[in-house]
Amino acid sequence: MPLTIASQLEEGFNTALRDLDARPTVIGVPEDRPWEAAASADILLARPSPAWRAARRTPRPEGWPGRLQWLHSASAGIDFYPAWMLEVPAVSCGRGVASDEIADYVIAAIYSHAKNLEAVRARGLAEWKQAPLGRVAGSTVGIVGLGSIGQAVARRALALGAEVVGARRRQLPSPVEGARLLDSLGDVIAAADHLVLALPATAATRNLIDAALLARAKPTAHLINIARGSVLDQEALIAALDADRLAFATLDVTEPEPLPAEHPLWTHPRVRLTPHVSSNYTTVRHLLFEKVVASLERFVRGEAPNDLVDVQAGY
Ligand SMILES: NC(=O)c1ccc[n+]([C@@H]2O[C@H](COP(=O)([O-])OP(=O)(O)OC[C@H]3O[C@@H](n4cnc5c(N)ncnc54)[C@H](OP(=O)(O)O)[C@@H]3O)[C@@H](O)[C@H]2O)c1
Question: Which of 257, 286, 290, 303 is catalytic?
Fold first, then answer.
């Protein structure tokens, strides 16, 4: 039986897959009806889309996962998908595709906050005033989640002369030389001048960064969330900012997305909100293709795809 891939990715991507040496049959599958792939495909390439939010409420389809042997998610996070969807022998994700782009976004946010060139912009003689600029070298960058994105941030921050401290879930050494793991999440938050959230949305991380942990932050600290809105208690964030217990927040992700029209985070003077753009996906789409091809070669050889997900852990 020829290898069949059901794909929710764009037609150009699918055409390029058809040209591979393995000559797979590539069929499209509707974003809101992924179960249609189960009867006819070995592999499902899925991407998170608004359609998934509806599918999350769909009961486990009869016959799922059927013929499917491997599900690959274009996104790094798998929190968009219904639980039944991950009941496929192998589940992999787009971990690493956008990590460098996201790390660059984080560094841009750190410099924007530290140097704040807009605040010292001189448009005439009246604004020709001396004011100190902040420093990145010598500051402490705290990173919660030292996976692919956290490591890319850590390497950059160390190269810029910052101290890097972090936390991860498993009792394993620091994955980046020079980045120190601290004993607790609270210790990371207390040490950070810039606190970067780079952990997955799982049952264990929902509202993990709550009022009690935010109370340990330096009043001058800058929080950056490029992970998922659900890992941060947004009400506690607003309370901390309003009480001068935290200086600023850069949020690329919120819960929900987008926020309701009247939500205070849109216009909060100490918040910079961006519409989930840090992955800069359109410019790194080719890396997703390379990742899928490398895993496909492994699959054809009977090996496990790269970047497998631990479905129980949720990432
Ligand atoms: N803004 C965007 O466009 C965008 C794009 C891509 C990804 N994301 C989000 O970013 C997340 C991280 O991506 P990634 O590629 O870096 O994932 P990853 O390589 O799987 O790394 C996840 C990291 O989080 C840590 N972690 C898990 N649970 C934790 C907990 N309870 N406390 C502390 N650390 C915990 C893991 O610890 P261990 O190392 O000990 O396992 C690991 O270091 C994704 O899951 C996704 O939700 C957002």
Answer: 257
